[in-house]
């Protein structure tokens, strides 16, 4: 299930409890401190863990939460971790300058609480996070391996010099002295549409470029 963190003043616990119920109906887990952590000596690490495990930080904004150092720490830590911050306005008050530019959802009007909009926003954040994970995975797959780097280096060298054929010895001198004949054979064999094997003067081993 999707997990979001709720930062709130304990004086707003009724809202926190209702939020837990409403989000659970949409299969969204609400991670919130019910007082046990703040009363303990290691509350900060517990809060940091909860935020790290969540895809977003919801901030129940009220006069009490504005004056709470705990709430300020929580949303500030979330910002530092790159979490999406979703302010939920419970009443009118002077918002912190760091939160002021962020669009809030208005929960200050009884009988017109935008739970559906909150759920949609959380789902959007989850979809964005999934898309980023997929992109990161694809990027990781396509990142060049050491052999790919060698292929690029050889092609660059050949193109710069206007060569079609080059000996393994020259590749070692110009590109990487650690490349053995066996390693260069593997480069050719693994890239049959780019390179072919070649025998130069005096029987020296080399490769030829097959691409333009």
Question: Topology, please?
Answer:
Elements: E1 2-7, H1 13-25, E2 28-31, H2 36-39, H3 43-52, E3 56-61, H4 63-66, H5 69-80, E4 84-89, E5 105-106, H6 115-142, H7 146-161, E6 165-167, H8 168-174, H9 181-190, E7 195-199, E8 205-209
Parallel strand pairs: 1-2, 1-3, 3-4, 4-5
Antiparallel strand pairs: 6-8, 7-8
Question: Can you characterise this structure?
Answer:
By secondary structure, the protein is α/β, with parallel strands linked by helices. The chain has two domains: 2-142, Toll/interleukin-1 receptor homology (TIR) domain (Rossmann fold, 3-Layer(aba) Sandwich), CATH 3.40.50.10140; 146-209, Arc Repressor Mutant, subunit A (Orthogonal Bundle). It has helices spanning 13-25, 36-39, 43-52, 63-66, 69-80, 115-142, 146-161, 168-174, 181-190; strands at 2-7, 28-31, 56-61, 84-89, 105-106, 165-167, 195-199, 205-209. The strands form two sheets. A five-stranded parallel beta sheet has the order 2-1-3-4-5, with helices on both faces. The mean pLDDT is 87.
């Amino acid at each position: 299930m999707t997990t979001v963190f709720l930062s709130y003043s304990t004086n707003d616990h009724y809202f926190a409890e209702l939020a837990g119920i409403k989000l659970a109906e949409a299969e969204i887990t609400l991670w919130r401190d019910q007082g046990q952590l703040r009363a303990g000596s290691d509350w900060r690490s517990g809060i940091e863990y909860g935020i790290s495990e969540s895809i977003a930080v919801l901030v129940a904004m009220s006069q009490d939460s504005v004056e709470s150092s705990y709430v300020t720490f929580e949303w500030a830590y979330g910002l530092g971790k790159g979490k999406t911050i979703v302010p939920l306005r419970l009443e009118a008050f002077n918002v912190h300058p760091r939160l002021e530019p962020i669009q809030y959802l208005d929960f200050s009007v009884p009988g017109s609480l935008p739970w559906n909009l909150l759920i949609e926003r959380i789902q959007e954040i989850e979809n964005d996070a999934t898309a980023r994970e997929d992109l990161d995975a694809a990027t990781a797959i396509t990142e060049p391996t050491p052999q790919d780097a060698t292929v690029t280096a050889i092609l660059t060298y050949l193109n710069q010099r206007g060569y079609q054929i080059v000996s393994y010895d020259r590749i070692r001198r110009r590109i990487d002295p650690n490349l053995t004949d066996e390693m260069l054979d593997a480069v050719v064999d693994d890239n049959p549409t780019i390179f072919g094997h070649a025998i130069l003067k005096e029987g020296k081993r080399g490769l030829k470029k097959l691409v333009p």
